């Protein structure tokens, strides 16, 4: 009986995720699901990324911000003067497709090129739930340690990109980037890995260029 309940939950989620993905295709919107453990720097990365996408690449962005409680991160992103919807899971460790669908109803989709879903800080649950996104990104940071790909392989297997954040702290921490690269490539040889510091801005331009390329590629396919 328990197995049937789990299948029903995942089936409903996947059905709605497929509907969301079809909607993004019709509207020519690219969607990214960005995931990490708590404190890896997702929100700070977005604070640096969104203005560059807008000013340098002309990308119109909106954000669905997921947290268990509170609106601290949503308020930070709202200061960028882009559409933001805060979703609180009230204890759940991940966002689901039905939650994302409800958030999308608050946006004017015809005026957007790019939607970011910032998932709840967790290195396990978010990987198991499709949200209708085009691709997933996992952020790891130097203070967390270099063992995350080996400890939480599901996150990395589901991701297209891994961001190694807080590289400015390298002189002060024992963190082997070689281990992260080796473990990631062992799991998924074509996994793209980018290094950056959201605090100093190092590597942010290359990250933004990658995103702009993904957005442009989807737009060209729909023409």
Q: Choose one word for the global shape.
A: globular
Main pleated sheet: 7 strands, parallel
Number of helices: 8
Computed structural class? alpha/beta
What's the CATH first level? Alpha Beta
Structure characterization notes:
It is a single chain. The chain has 223 residues and is of the alpha/beta class. The chain is built from 8 helices and 7 strands; from the N terminus they run H-E-H-E-H-E-H-E-E-H-H-E-H-E-H. The chain has one domain (2-216): Rossmann fold (3-Layer(aba) Sandwich), CATH 3.40.50.300. Helices cover 43% and strands 18% of the residues. It has a 7-stranded parallel sheet with strand order 3-2-4-1-5-6-7, sandwiched between helices. Helix 3 (72-78) links the parallel strand 2 (61-67) and strand 3 (84-88). The N and C termini lie far apart (47 Å).
Summarize the structure.
The chain is α/β, with parallel strands linked by helices and 223 residues long.
Task: Pick out its properties.
seven-stranded parallel beta sheet, globular, alpha/beta, 223 residues, Rossmann fold, single chain, 8 helices
Task: Summarize the SSE layout with pairings.
Blueprint (H helix, E strand, L loop, with lengths): L1 H26 L2 E7 L5 H16 L3 E7 L4 H7 L5 E5 L8 H8 L9 E5 L16 E7 L6 H4 L1 H6 L2 E5 L11 H11 L4 E4 L8 H19 L1
Parallel strand pairs: 1-4, 1-5, 2-3, 2-4, 5-6, 6-7
Helix pairs in contact: 1-4, 2-8
């Amino acid at each position: 009986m328990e197995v049937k309940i789990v299948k029903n939950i995942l089936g409903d989620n996947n059905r709605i995720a497929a509907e969301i993905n079809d909607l993004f295709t019709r509207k020519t919107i690219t969607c990214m699901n960005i995931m990490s453990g708590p404190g890896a720097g997702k929100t700070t990365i977005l604070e640096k990324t969104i203005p560059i996408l807008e000013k340098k690449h002309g990308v119109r962005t909106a954000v669905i911000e997921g947290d268990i409680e509170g609106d601290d991160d949503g308020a930070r992103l709202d200061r960028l003067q882009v559409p933001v919807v805060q979703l609180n899971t009230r204890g759940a460790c991940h966002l689901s497709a039905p939650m994302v669908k409800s958030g999308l109803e608050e946006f004017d989709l015809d005026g957007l090129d790019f939607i970011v879903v910032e998932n709840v800080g967790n290195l396990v649950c978010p990987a198991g739930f499709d949200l209708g996104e085009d691709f997933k990104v996992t952020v790891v940071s130097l203070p967390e340690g270099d063992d995350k790909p080996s400890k939480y392989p599901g996150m990395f297997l589901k991701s297209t990109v891994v961001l190694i954040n807080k590289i400015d702290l390298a002189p002060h921490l024992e963190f082997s980037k070689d281990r992260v690269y080796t473990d990631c490539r062992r799991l998924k040889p074509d996994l793209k890995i980018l290094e950056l510091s959201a605090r100093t801005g190092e590597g942010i331009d290359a990250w933004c260029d990658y995103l702009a390329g993904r957005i442009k590629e989807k737009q060209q396919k729909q023409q």
